[in-house]
Prior knowledge:
Elements: H1 15-23, E1 102-104, E2 113-115, E3 132-139, H2 151-162, H3 180-189, E4 191-195, H4 210-213, H5 224-246, E5 252-256, E6 261-265, E7 276-280, H6 284-292, E8 297-298, H7 300-326, H8 342-347, H9 358-365, H10 367-371, E9 380-383, H11 386-396, E10 413-416, E11 424-427, E12 429-438, E13 443-455, H12 457-470, E14 474-481, H13 501-507, H14 515-521, E15 534-538, E16 541-545
Antiparallel strand pairs: 1-2, 3-13, 3-14, 4-10, 4-11, 5-6, 5-10, 6-7, 7-9, 8-9, 12-13, 14-15, 15-16
Amino acid sequence: AASAVPGYSPGFKKPPATLRLKRKRPRSSEPVPAPPPCGEAPPAPSAPARRNPFSSLDNAPRAAGAPQPRERGRRPPPPSPPPAGGSPSAAPFWQVGPSPGTAVAEDLHLPVAVPAVPSSSRHEFPADWSIKTRLLFMSSQPFTWAEHLKTQEEAQGFVQHCRATETNLPESIQEPKLSTELRCAFQQSLVYWLHPSLPWLQLFPRIGADRRIAGKASPWSQDEALQQVLMSDWSVSFTSLYNLLKAKLCPYFYVCTYQFTVLFRAAGLAGSDVITAVISPTTRGLREGMRNEGIEFSLPLVEESRTRKQKNSEVNLETEVANSLEVGEEPVPSDDDDESFSWLEEMGVQDKVKKPDAISIKLRKEKHEVQMDHKPESLALVRGTNTFTLLNFLINCKSLVAVTGPQAGLPPTLLSPVAFRGGTMQTLKARSINAKARVHLAYEDIFSLEIVGPVMPHCLHALTTLLQAAQKGAFSAVLYAHEPTAVFNTDLGTASPALNKETVCKDLAACGLHPKALDQLSQCPTLGKSSIRVLEMKDYAYTWKS
Length: 546
């Protein structure tokens, strides 16, 4: 009865084989294979070798260049995009994307980044004035000393921070987990101060944070009276921070708005002998408002670019003149001044052509300045007593706070390494992770410590100092910076030859930072418009990549 059914075949096909037969299409140049005779099942294609899911991670890996088998029906995961703006939630530990010069473990389950850094090494890395949003430390030694702090250790760490206790650890700690001094110093290094404090909102970073803040409760957005109260309280905290900075009791602080960030630095830091304020990015409207208030400022990157172009044009002009003299021609002068219209008189049409007015000439000259708005090149530098005028300008500036959108009515974020009036003590979030990574054709244990939050320059120095002692001078780190603040590492030409390390440490002894951190931050910035991306210590010597 079975043979009477048309198209019946007693040979059953497995579903994978059937799918492969349907996917396979004969090419036009190839002959179509004849169907198998009735009663015979078509031969199923040989399936690829399947990986043993119970194989141990300690098994010897395949030789380099050998094809890696893939499980049937399993597609390789797409590469994870890099974190936008260094957002803490953009790239978890197990999705660390490979940055330039970074080797990633081959196993899909263990993509642990192994930084590759330049060969030159020093016993100290340069000051990095950008705010980090995430740090990922890796070492062959465990980070058990950073886990589950006791109540007494946590309390002692807070006390040491508030009293600015200077902690000096030995070069190497044999039993880091049993070192109470190390664990207290770790808690001390995680503390920072913030205003305003709204626990249900993440108030850093503020640039590009509309999507993250959208949908959260914001009762002040439609209440002007509440907005005035918030701004009044914010003004008191801002003024308190500036007074501490002026008295050299605060080394630096950040003002983070929804459009730009301001870094105030005390006299003696970044090679300057006066208080400085760096604003980035800026717009033409903000710069015009500062000029109208009588604030003297400079655009160092624009001036540097203008000087470079002028030198190049002078070299090109000299070359053209030399070439003209060689061929016996008269050199033709080059006049790029927009206000010069002598060529109209030579043509005899000076009365027939309408000359541009002064406003048009001004706009033409400021064309380059307008084009650099919202870019790192728009960085503005304010020095000396003009920083106090800038303080009053920012307090009264209506564009400092967003009028519409999720951040409407929300005052800017103040970040400081020391306490100030209205500031709230906060701590960075830390967690340790253990994994295995393939290194030199073998699996090795990789221990990681992740720090999330607004990591300021002094905190990065404190953490690396602790890791130097706890990890026996061998660790690596991947640093994620808030990109709009990377330009703060530019050398602004404010170096004072009369400034020395002894004077800086003496004048800022009560600012709450460790003397070695002060020594680092007093140096002139050398990273340019970039920040440190990869940092490695080997044999107590640093190498880094920006």
